[in-house]
Write a structure and sequence with these properties.
- This protein is an all-alpha fold and about 120 residues long.
- It folds into two domains: about 30 residues, no CATH class; about 60 residues.
- Helices cover about 65% and strands about 0% of the residues.
- The protein contains seven helices and no strands.
């Protein structure tokens, strides 16, 4: 759509965005046929141990993905740390990196002192 409005040829458009023209044609054909450009792919590692990871995460809310990963591995499921992290993020159980910093700042304010 944007390519047509700007009056660019397909070859020039692909060159500008460093996309092989064959890839662009494949994406266009898939889009016209009503399919998705990419994915969804099967996720066997996530599906196999998801319930166990969520059980551990619910039992220990303050624990991070590495401890949940260790518990899952101890229970016999071979998953990576990144898989556990992704599942916790998908479920909204992963605390942001600044979580500890924010807690310390709130505690400092409640005590009346500023560090």
């Amino acid at each position: 759509m944007i390519r047509i409005e700007s009056g660019m040829s397909t070859a020039r458009w692909c060159e500008k965005f460093d996309i092989p023209e064959r890839t662009w044609r494949r994406w266009q054909a898939r889009g016209r046929a009503g399919g998705q450009a990419k994915g969804p792919w099967p996720q066997p590692a996530r599906c196999s141990a998801r319930d166990l990871m969520l059980k551990h995460a619910a039992a220990h809310l303050a624990w991070g993905h590495r401890k949940i990963w260790a518990l899952t591995r101890h229970d016999g499921h071979m998953v990576s740390e990144a898989t556990v992290l992704r599942i916790l993020r998908d479920e909204g159980l992963f605390l942001p990196e600044s979580y500890q910093r924010e807690r310390r700042q709130l505690a400092c304010v409640e005590e009346g002192g500023v560090r």
